[in-house]
Amino acid sequence: MKLHTLKPADGSTKNRKRIGRGPGSGRGGTSTRGHKGAKSRSGYKRKLGFEGGQMPLQRRVPKFGFKSLNRVEFKPVNLDTLQQLATDYKLETIDFDTMVAHGIASKNDKVKVLGGGELSSKVSVTAHSFSASAVESIEKAGGSVNRI
């Protein structure tokens, strides 16, 4: 066997359709595009969401409500999660970098500490935002709250 004798396995390759090469090709005339309509014309490009003239889904579905362009999405973190961190790693300060390092938040998140669960450790917590109940619980346990 030599390089010049190599060929693909039988049936693995197929000749492409040669379209628009006259009547002798068997695909002359309309060149497999049918007779009339937008798809038969040159330069046809289907619009995104076009359903053949039927009312498109994005126009059929009713729209309601209000979506604020200035909404800020927060990653919620409860007090019991902070307590778990403090006991497992013996921490006295929990800041945003600590939460990122332990997989609680990603580096692009904004963190809001919520008052779910109990906090018994004296911990200094630094985050983007806090709920009123979280601030009360942290200060009651002897800790402090710092906003970024």
From TrEMBL:
<feature type="domain" description="Large ribosomal subunit protein uL15/eL18">
    <location>
        <begin position="76"/>
        <end position="145"/>
    </location>
</feature>
<protein>
    <recommendedName>
        <fullName>Large ribosomal subunit protein uL15</fullName>
    </recommendedName>
</protein>
<dbReference type="InterPro" id="IPR036227">
    <property type="entry name" value="Ribosomal_uL15/eL18_sf"/>
</dbReference>
<dbReference type="InterPro" id="IPR001196">
    <property type="entry name" value="Ribosomal_uL15_CS"/>
</dbReference>
<feature type="compositionally biased region" description="Basic residues">
    <location>
        <begin position="33"/>
        <end position="47"/>
    </location>
</feature>
<feature type="region of interest" description="Disordered">
    <location>
        <begin position="1"/>
        <end position="52"/>
    </location>
</feature>
<comment type="subunit">
    <text>Part of the 50S ribosomal subunit.</text>
</comment>
<dbReference type="InterPro" id="IPR030878">
    <property type="entry name" value="Ribosomal_uL15"/>
</dbReference>
<comment type="function">
    <text>Binds to the 23S rRNA.</text>
</comment>
<dbReference type="Pfam" id="PF00828">
    <property type="entry name" value="Ribosomal_L27A"/>
</dbReference>
<keyword id="KW-0699">rRNA-binding</keyword>
<dbReference type="InterPro" id="IPR021131">
    <property type="entry name" value="Ribosomal_uL15/eL18"/>
</dbReference>
<dbReference type="GO" id="GO:0005840">
    <property type="term" value="C:ribosome"/>
</dbReference>
<keyword id="KW-0694">RNA-binding</keyword>
<keyword id="KW-0687">Ribonucleoprotein</keyword>
<keyword id="KW-0689">Ribosomal protein</keyword>
<comment type="similarity">
    <text>Belongs to the universal ribosomal protein uL15 family.</text>
</comment>
<dbReference type="InterPro" id="IPR005749">
    <property type="entry name" value="Ribosomal_uL15_bac-type"/>
</dbReference>
<feature type="compositionally biased region" description="Gly residues">
    <location>
        <begin position="21"/>
        <end position="31"/>
    </location>
</feature>
